[in-house]
# Entry
Amino acid sequence: MTDAHTPAAPKCPPSPAAAEAAGPSASAVGSATSTATTPVTEPAAGFATAATKVSDAHSPALASEPPIVSVRDLTVTFNPGKRPIKAVNGVDLVVRRGESIALIGESGSGKSVTLRSLLRLHSERRTVIGGQIDIAGHAVLSLSNRALADYRGRVASMIFQEPLLALDPVYTVGAQIIESIRRHEKISVADARKRALELFERVRIPSPERRLDAYPHEMSGGMRQRAMIALALACRPQVLLADEPTTALDATVQIQILLLLRELQRELGLAIIFVTHDMGAAVEVAERFAVMYAGRIVEEGPTREVMHNPRHPYTLALMQSRAHGAMAKGARLASIAGSPPDLAALPPGCAFAGRCVFAEPRCHEIQPDAVQLSELHRARCIRTDATAAGMPRIEPATV
Amino acid sequence: MDISSKPRQVHPPLIDIRDRGGPAQPMLRVRKLFKHFDLKKSFIESLAGGGQVVRAVDGVDFDVFKGETLGVVGESGCGKSTTARLLMHLIEPSGGEIIFDGETVGTPGLSLREYRRQVQLVFQDSYSSLNPRLTIEDSVAFGPQVHGVSRREAIGRARDLLARVGLEPRRFAERYPHELSGGQRQRVNIARALALEPRLVILDEAVSALDKSVEAQVLNLLMDLKDAFGLTYIFISHDLHVVRYISDRVMVMYLGKVAETGPAEDLFERPLHPYTGALLSSMPSMDPDQRTQEAPLTGDPPNPINPPSGCRFHTRCPMAEPVCAEQTPTLASVRGQRKVACLIHEIGSGHSQADAAIYAA
# Structure
């Protein structure tokens, strides 16, 4: 599944050089981007140069470049021992430089767990992570603690759903950004502050000079989220991980933040992994969709293709259960019967089979493989023909 | 189990003996409803007698007609949840009048206790609104017992209602809230609200915390129950798609005031207040080929502690003129059932577009 994007591309797992770069030495990590296998322009060179890379993000030349994020067969199990909860069960994910992908799913689908694994944010004692994660030449799962701290924020950084909880309440936001910059670079406080100010202007915080000295609680929700984006971008990461960044915001503010993320991605050439349950928000930001269910990616493809031609029954049902614009008054919503499966007792077959209108006996027995539907579009289902054939409206069901 | 296929009449008829005013009398009339929360005063402020207040709800007028669903939308801080709590008298209004079916609430004609029997509220957080130490059957049966129904009858009614909301009593009645999923718990909350046979149910973000697939189940259930029991709903939500789908009429609030009301389809098709328009175009587009290119509004909603003068929306309004900062618009009928509080739609308000807009309407 990982290199299905580019069948012709040379297989390019991180080279030994990259693995060395990911080693414990702090200076090596600083230069990791240059020792990585990618022969392209220096990505950390600054915002301005990266901006030129935008337009050809999907050109064939870049498609052959090794992906900046490559996740293979990721499994995450919480609480190993008595009652292990299998939150992620074999996720493969490839993200290229300058590309944005949305991980879409309901609660318990494993979307946030996957995202957090990319920064290794889960408690080590209570989590077992399997598989491989390579981000810009760093083998994330085998980084030492020191190297991990260098990697976080510098190579990949994250914005969270609730900035009030993610920001430290006892320091001004400016101080937090300066601290973060100085953790990764040898730079004076004055210079770091200057950069923090640029970042605030970049994310369009009004009267940025004054806002640098504000505490998180003194800012409004939208402003705090902008400040957190500025913090996440402080060390010029190449990968931005966004965990439901707009869910807690009001509608008129949400759209501002979505447009800001889109603009930053375009201008800085960031790779964005955007986790959300809201398809609408995902459409605004992402070029590619990955729909998750019970810890697996069940359907993946370009946004346009997935939206117009969903082929996994779950994706289809998810779209049909939405109340949308000009729906006939009084028409019933199609709903998905039942509730998501218990992650501590997953069925042997397809996890969605119990709620699926197209399920046949075989679905309960085997774990479906990904079916390649077009060059970039695939779904894990043995009945993709059924979803394509006429897309019948799923009968309303209760309980 | 499909509820819609067999509308079993467990409960009394649609023509309600409790209906005093007849069909033309609005179920609920709210007049000049205020709620100002005092902020903690400093010593000097308390000497001066001043201190700041949060104007959470600032003079709200609206009607809810019998048998309809009134959708209430707005951003955080607009006062929609405070309004819900004021309607239930969970917090005391600072001023204003609530008239339920022709009787003012809290007068000898309609005691607060009797009023609360007829009006019920379902909250957003399905977990914290249930008592963790009661089985769901006991939770549902609790209200009727307070109002003098025998325990046996109350439990019987509770089991009926649980079956009605799609929770098989034999499997679920003895469970505790933590043993249920979010969607199931919200069904329990709905059953509990119906246990007193209310006439008006206020749903305060009742489906907002649910996953989309479960949300659809609960919305279908709400519509079935409305038909079966002849209910009237006030449906509060920030999700415009859901509000448009479920509501007959919609009320848009901004910073403690009503910006606009009207029939749902008309209001969504032709928003009159600039805020309604901005709110509608802030909805993410579902079409990858027609992504939003520009945010309709900048900045966050202002703080209700010191709301802007004049029209409260003037600080973010694309149509604002100097007059908007001085003159407070009144909520007035424009055409048909539409009402809007905007100087553009007020004759002789001084806004340069005022007369043109009315002419066009």
Q: What stands out?
A: Residues 131 and 262 of chain A are 30 Å apart (CA to CA). Confidence is low (pLDDT under 50) at residues 1-61, 392-399 of chain A. Chain A touches chain B through 49 residues (CB under 8 Å).
